[in-house]
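Q: Structure tokens for this one, please.
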Amino acid sequence: MHRLWRHIRRFFQLQPGRPAWALGVRAALAVTIPYSFATLMGFKDAGWTGLTGLLVTLANPGGAYRGRARVMGAVTVLGAVVGAGAALAGGRLWWDAALLLVGVLTMSFVRCYGETVGSIGEKLAVIFVASLGAHAVGVDAALTRGGALLLGGAWAMVQSLVLWPVHPYRPSRRAIAHVYTSLADGARDLAALSREAAPAEVWAEATTRHMPVRLKIERARETLAATRVGRSDESQRGEHLLVLLELSEQLLGVLFALAQSMEVASPERRLRAVREEVARVCDWYVAIANRVAAVSIAPDSVAVYWPRYPTNREELGQRGKWLRVVPVSVTELLARLRSHTFAAQRAAMAMRRGDPVSLRDPESLLRVDERRPLLQPLLANLNSRSVVLRHALRAGTVASIALVLTRLMGLGESYWVVLSAIGILQPYSANTEERALQRVTGTLLGGTLAAVIATGVGSPLVLILMIGVLTAISVSLLPLNFGAFQILLTPDFLLLATLSAGDWSVAENRALGVLVACVLALAGVWLLWPYPERRRFPDAVATVLRADGHYFRQVAASHDIREPRVGAARRALGLAMIDAEASFERLMAEYRGPAYRLEPAMALLTYSRRLAASVTALAEQKSVTPSSEVLDVVANKASGTLDALADSLREGKSPPPMPELPLRRIANDPVSGQLVERVPRQLEILHGAVEKLTVDEERSPL
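A: Here is the predicted structure, written as tokens:
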């Protein structure tokens, strides 16, 4: 009951943001214009043009235009080939079932190459199933269908990539602007919490709240890298964006380090003036970061007012009593924040004026992942622990069973049941349950809406106009709420089916088919190769712990925290943390026991995050730490302990005893010393949490 109530709440929950009206209008035009054109020309398979137009529009991943053209072109061309081939192949029940098993499995398994390729596979699976269900007699009919699919997809590409204004760097500028607004939000929280001397738990919540900044930086890097491919003669704008991207990494580290320092300083009354000064500097940074974001989005806009930033010791308040009590580590962090902010401001001003910029190795900043051999992702997922393989087997099997069952039961629209089943089926059980609720509700409400429209509107042209309006609104609401998208998109398919078949009983059959599909999808995710999140979560956390240890080692061994290996280790840790957080969310959705048994899992995530923040703070302050020997000892022993904890989680064994970490205060710095002394306490809590999870697998808290 708890899980059902959670799914219902999420059904009505709106995500932050605004409706994507431009995407909605493009989707509406992608459906209605080719469909209307094909109908007026007497094209037999007019409905296929609208289907592929919608799918290609939804496949648009955003970001760089080159990447968008590649993805949309793949869906268009491969969709036409798959659709024509499937049209010829269908016709016999058991042959169709075998084709569904192999085809849906293959198109689901390509997800091992990433979410973008997985999205292409999903769209091709829809075309494959739909075309297989509408058998074409003869090669001419199959080629006609392929041409209809090609026409609809080509029109959608022309709309998105040609008719709408093309600004090659606009996606990159928006992505980097989002990074700087997020950094400004984090600095605003930092200023507020510093002034009020917030307790440790409030600081921890703020750190968790701003963890997605790492993901935004990675997306901006990918977008900018895709934009610059093949642009060797590029103008200076791309170089300025590279500078801003590099500076965002450095600013993120400084802000995290300042947050850790102010958390340490919060209980100290004698450091009240220090906290106030840090808050004042953060206020300046917020104002400048927001202006950098504004210039990134519109470099050619009107002149921007830049607030005056503190530039000398007097303006920073470093005089008299405050100068005597200020920790050297905080002074260094403020100086770095000022330096990085000035650099970002100069880059934004230079981008507006078109001034040149100098970069030693710009392409090195955009290296996201090393290219892997083509077969490596396939081979890496050919094992029983692979989520991708299990989902692909499950999707192919459910598709075949859905076809055979509906044919044997004499239900109409059997391929609609197959499409609904694979649309509902997700790699994780909680997501499948939520999608089933959305699809059933959307079909019932959307079917009712379609019935009202069809009975009240008699003209086919007016119906096509209504289809366009519903498509525009539904796709616009997709970023905010998938349930609303489903409710408003269902009448589109029903009305298109009614126009094509001329029979309203099609809608009734499809509503019944969705109910059957929900049952099959839920049975599939619960019974076929189940792999609950409680078995995946330990691996995800083990990856975080190992990445934490690697990051600590790189920090201790580095001479300059701007070394590429330190940045790479920090990025790997941030992405591993995001993956573990998502795994824990799925675990909570699947979990049915008492809440207190999740405490060890929550402790692992919380203190892995706190340890990472402590390491980042120590990295930023390393240049002013009088004694680096202590940091080296702590880093080596802590990383060894983290590796041992990761092995224990993966093997399900109790961890070995934790080694002692002999510490002494680093000079008289009240901030750096306490940050180092925090590490053993954080490791002890992580050790205890792992021990609770691995004492006995049968009595595991999860």
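A few notes: The chain has a mean pLDDT of 78. The chain has 26 helices and no strands.
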